[in-house]
Amino acid sequence: MVGGAEYSEQIQLAKSKTDELLTRLRATKPGPERQAALVELRRRHGPADEELFKEALDEEGLLLELLGELVDPSKSRAPPPTLDGTPEPAWIAAKYALARDRYTAGDVFGALKILVAIVSLEPQTKQLVEIRRLRTRCQDRLTESSWLKVRLVPKSEVITSRSNLEVFLVIENVSEQLIKVLHEDDAAMGVVYIDYEELNRDGTRTRIRTQQGIKLEAEEVTLKPKGKRRIKLRIPTAHRRLPPGAVGRYRLSGRIRPTRLEVGGAPASRFLVMPEQPVIVLGSRDIGLAKEPHASFKSAVARARKGTYASREEPARSAFVAAVVLGHRDRELALASLIEALDTSEPPLTQALCAGMGRVNGEPLNFTKDEWLAWWSQRTAPAPTPEEVPTDPR
Hints:
- The chain is of the alpha+beta class.
- It folds into three domains: 4-145, no CATH class; 148-285, Immunoglobulins (Immunoglobulin-like), CATH 2.60.40; 291-363, no CATH class.
- The chain has helices spanning 7-27, 32-45, 50-56, 61-71, 90-105, 108-121, 128-146, 293-303, 309-329, 331-342, 349-361, 369-379, and strands at residues 148-154, 158-160, 167-173, 179-182, 190-199, 205-214, 220-223, 228-233, 247-256, 261-263, 266-267, 272-282.
- Strands 2-12-9-5-6 form a five-stranded mixed beta sheet, with helices on one face.
- Strand 5 (190-199) and strand 6 (205-214) form a beta hairpin.
- The longest helix is centred in the first third of the chain and has 21 residues, at 7-27.
- It is flat and about 75 Å long.
């Protein structure tokens, strides 16, 4: 039940859910335990979400490729033929596999050295596309971990509709080199992507997507080794007219242009990506729900089960707001709490809980109570053991 409009959001959610399993995969040798972890990954996402699954785990794509071969060795790809029909030297595939293994084990520099050596010896290899893809991932990871980190830091994770959206760009030099962030007149050093949506209890929502260039007041920012700089950004405010009873949600991300960075006197060659940072916007009367969102949700659900239909409207809306805030802080707890309440709910609480399930789960469409309960039942079904994994009939 994943729609294209929430593609980037679901990528982040899917990647978050798989972190623990990926750690297990890296730590285990080929065998039943690794196979069981792969089965669990597949169960969580399902065959219908295969493309989303691959995008969500882009950085781990090579790990999944390796695991697929472990599950079914018959699918291991033979070396592609050369122009005259003869196969490529077997050492190329073997060295590429070794580089891939080192990358997934965390030895990024070692993997990069092997890839450079392959291309130096066989610049026309038929595996050039795969080698370049892995080399790019190695370079990205080394760039982020070895010399500079950039991130967006909101002043507060929850604000009111009357507050300003205050965001800082934090640039941290993690290297032993002097780093300069350059700025030219009328030229942006990077861009911030601003995704803002307003969510309602009835399941409706509106969305605004904009972007803002990042400019510095000074011509350059110099970072000494291990130095850090915090720069306040001017972000357009879209939440001033938040309707009563609605929840606003920002998702902020961005990137820094490589031509604006110098490391040790040489220009940097890669974009630096700033991971997504969410900010929740609440009306003044709802801000109290954010202090203890789980307790606020349970209290609102209890009140929404008593009294007349009209008297249950407001606590049902409060349950929706508290669920969205809880999902911002602890997605799994929010989903479990919503499902538990939904199982025995009646209108108008049912509609509010279904809307909450959609917004917390990143689902752009609306689904009924029975559909969400069925989804949850499938999601929490026990994973099959390695012996139960179906094999290719071929």
